[in-house]
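quick one before i forget lol
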Amino acid sequence: MAYTASQLISMSEKELDDLFSASPAGDIPSGEAEGTAIVAAGTPFSHEIASLVNIFTWQGKTFDAAHGTLTNRISSFGVNAIVAEVYKANSLFDNKECIVLDYSKTSVVAKHIRDEIRLIGPGTYLGLVYWDKKKTIHFALQFPTQ
């Protein structure tokens, strides 16, 4: 099934966790992905928060699979900043394989952040954000499909 960012934002925390757990890691992606922060999942505020985050803070990620890195597109200008290492490893969430976006060695600002993503549909990944080892929010990444 193909998921839209709007559908994911409308899901509950448990539904998102279940979807993440049931999904494969997929291949490490390459290229630009539109990002959607999923904060307060399944509440009336989730869509508004996602819009504000996308306008002012975070717009997505640009992956370079060949080099195992990514940069985040931040600010309303889409500046590429905040680098992460990208590799496959077991998830902190359920100990199954996922794609890890690791900022611990590449960023002073985000050194406590670890993202994990899994493929949930063509060109669409669902992610979890950890602060140290505490799960905080979900996010979606949507790549242009061929």
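fyi The chain is about 20% helix and 45% strand.
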